[in-house]
Design a protein that fits this description.
InterPro entries: HemC (IPR000860), Porphobilin_deaminase_N (IPR022417), Porphobilinogen_deaminase_C (IPR022418), Porphobilinogen_deaminase_C_sf (IPR036803). Pfam families: Porphobil_deam, Porphobil_deamC. The chain has 313 residues and is of the alpha/beta class. The protein has three domains: 118 residues, 3-Layer(aba) Sandwich (D-Maltodextrin-Binding Protein, domain 2); 78 residues, 3-Layer(aba) Sandwich (D-Maltodextrin-Binding Protein, domain 2), CATH 3.40.190.10; 72 residues, Porphobilinogen deaminase, C-terminal domain (Double Stranded RNA Binding Domain), CATH 3.30.160. The chain is built from eleven helices and 13 strands. α9 packs parallel to α10. The longest helix has 18 residues. The structure holds ligand PBG. Ligand PBG binds next to β8 and α7.
């Protein structure tokens, strides 16, 4: 068992303030307490309002991308105001400052998207309005259903469900993991990875700490899930090779398959008309294979797809 620091509370965990972020931070705190035999309250949650939560009316890709989710927490972590920060790994930029490290990646929850408002992609009514601001979800939908109209849908999970209920769209997508963590696991229909791949790292919670903070690194390592780490780091290696940004429609899933990892990935043009897919099988920890898959996808992609990759984050 790791040493419990003298002062109480022992660990200050920074988190965004949205209900989903708070649920993820509580789950992280519970796991830390269970792993180390700490009393409740040994982990203090420190909520901050992230820039990404302040601007709700425009797609994230337009207003500055994933950095808007981590900016405030990064500043607090760098300054020592918090010991670690909890993120949805899919919202964390691929290239992070050297001063931070992924101290723990928790066991991945359901990786799938869920469709709300229709029983399947095929069952969405002809010409329906579908709310999403994720380039991946928009492109995947339009690839399968070019008759649909995509409208911007931002805000936290409850906001998006309310927008759907009020008729702003006929259907929308939400991550199964997020719904589950909010106690809404029965909402909508899960889309199986066979025909609808999720976002890189979807369903995984990441806990970042300062790279030079050996004490916190040791504490966090107790809740790290090695199999999840291998999968999501491979997905992020693919992302890195693609030079993908939050404008880039990338769908990928890496899963344990016997004693190896199996990855399937697809990249799209913004309008979903073009799609290039590929797959690879490799050993856990091999990041060259997913990078090679990324380069291979780009080499085979159309100009309309390639225009969305290799850009600035
Ligand atoms: N883009 C926002 C976001 N970031 C993480 C989740 C859910 C949790 C996860 O996927 O890990 C969500 C909501 C959603 O996409 O529906």
């Amino acid at each position: 068992m790791a040493d419990i620091p003298r002062n109480h509370p022992v660990l200050r965990l920074g988190t965004r303030q949205s209900p989903l972020a708070m649920a993820q931070a509580r789950e992280t705190a519970n796991r830390l307490c269970a792993a180390h035999g700490w009393a409740e309250g040994a982990v203090e949650l420190v909520p901050v309002v992230a820039s990404g939560d302040k601007i709700q009316d425009r797609p994230l890709a337009e207003i500055g991308g994933k950095a808007l989710w981590t900016k405030e927490l990064d500043a607090w972590l760098a300054a020592g105001e918090i010991d670690a920060s909890v993120h949805s790994l899919k919202d964390v930029e691929t290239l992070r400052p050297e001063q931070f490290t992924l101290g723990a990646i928790l066991e991945r929850a359901d990786r799938r998207d869920r469709l709300l408002g229709a029983a399947s992609i095929r069952a969405i009514p002809q010409g329906a309005v579908v709310g999403t601001s994720a380039p991946r979800r928009a492109a995947q939908l339009l690839h399968a259903r070019p008759d649909c109209k995509v409208v911007t849908f931002r805000g936290n999970v409850a906001t998006r469900m309310a927008k759907l209920a009020s008729g702003e769209a006929d259907a929308t997508f939400l991550a199964a993991a997020g719904l589950e963590r909010l106690g809404e696991s029965g909402v909508g229909t899960p889309l199986d990875a066979q025909d609808w791949l999720p976002a890189p790292s979807q369903g995984a919670i990441a806990v970042e700490c300062r790279s030079d903070d050996q004490e916190v690194r040791a504490l966090l390592s107790a809740i790290d899930h090695a199999a999840t780490r291998a999968e999501v780091l491979a997905e992020r290696a693919l992302l890195e090779a693609l030079g993908g940004t939050c404008h880039s429609p990338i769908a990928v899933l890496c899963e344990q398959d016997g004693d190896a990892l199996a990855m399937r990935a697809a990249i799209y043009s913004a309008d979903g008309a073009d799609r290039t897919e590929g797959e690879a099988r490799f050993a856990a920890g091999d990041l060259d294979a997913p990078r090679a898959l990324g380069r291979d996808l780009l080499a085979r992609a159309t100009p309309a797809i390639r225009a969305l990759f290799g850009g600035e984050p």
